Amino acid sequence: MALRDLAISSKSSSESPVIRLPLLAASDVSLDLLQQTVSIGGIESRDAFFDVVLDKQGVANLQTLFASPSPEQATPDPAAGSPAKPWNVLVHQLALGNYDIRFRDEKPSTPFVTQLSPLSVNIREWKPLAPDPFSIRVTTGIAGQEIPQPANLAIDLQLQLSPLMADAHADLQQLPLQLFQPYLHDMVRADINSGMATAVLDVHFEASEPMKLGVQGAAQVQLLDVHEKGTDRKLLSWEKLDIAGLSYQLQENRLQIEQVTLGKPNSAFVINADGTTNVHDLMLSQLQQVQEKPSTPMHMAINAIVIEDADLGFADLSMQPNFRVGMQQLSGAIKGLSSDPKSQATIDLQGKVDRYAPVTIKGKLNPLAPKPSLDTHMAFSNLELTTFTPYSGTYAGFKIDKGQLSLDIDYKLVNDRIRGKNR
Known about the structure:
Blueprint: E1 2-8, E2 19-32, E3 37-46, E4 49-54, H1 61-65, H2 71-74, E5 88-105, E6 112-126, E7 134-144, E8 151-161, E9 164-176, H3 181-185, E10 190-206, E11 212-228, E12 234-249, E13 254-263, E14 266-271, H4 278-282, H5 285-288, E15 299-316, E16 323-338, E17 345-353, E18 357-366, E19 373-384, H6 389-396, E20 404-414, E21 417-422
Parallel strand pairs: 3-5, 4-5, 13-15, 14-15
Antiparallel strand pairs: 1-2, 2-3, 2-4, 5-6, 6-7, 7-8, 8-9, 9-10, 10-11, 11-12, 12-13, 12-14, 15-16, 16-17, 17-18, 18-19, 19-20, 20-21
């Protein structure tokens, strides 16, 4: 028994099918009317194509293909009596292979486009009319425009339909972050030039009241490179970001991470020629005006953030010549971050300024609390005074030829403003 060459088009575009189904076949079908049983050895479908589009209102084109039932059709007949004995239907194997699903979201200013291909779904020992749990395996590639190498996603799912409950193991490999550029452009003025995400997660879901959702696992982002939109000015990069021991519980609204390891991060704070900053320039005006707050703050805790060989820079482009200072080889850890307002994380970092002068950053902070706090000490030793020549030339009228300086600066957060004091 087989269905071949099915094509379904929308009324607005009959020449481009929304669904193409070259083959849907069932084999080894047996029917017992007395026992009300149906056994199907296998259901196979291959090479299907789905063109899914979300319009700017968030309505999918698939919703408009099929008419909704009228109220008269949807209302059961009270005189129909008690429901009949349910049939026992068993599908020994369902295999969907080499599917191609194209997805387009038109809500962003630049539409988001991705493709799931080749997508395969395999189900064994499935009773579609019974509440018995069954296993599903899904594998697919994830591609997009101007993405040279697609990502790979594999999901092993144990599903129960009544009551709805699922346990899934997901393995995502090498997802290009450039794929999500259309969404980023609607929030900040930044371009993702590169970045690969990998994640291995275990997910538990129960459609109970209240709903339960738990996620455990680890994730990694490699070779991230983010620039200001339309420029070659780097905003942020790193070789690796490892997230280990991730745990999220929806019912408790709690996120906990054992350790975040940041390898060779590179970032900069820039004062532009007109006195504005690169951070302020990033935010789109409509995003700056949004001040939504969640009804219930999330409980967050990160046991440790380990920083390895960071390169953090500062530049003032309003000076002529431009002034720049950099902290290199910055390494150490921030331990005990928490949204608990009573907690204080410790920071201990050591590095170099302009690769020669030692710098130490120590203290306490809590940026995750409802009212953030900061109390840190920065110690600079043997800074070359020639670094400050642009400032002395602009504000004092002279240039510095040579000399060294040591600084001890305390920074505190007072009324949401950072205040520094030189010892």
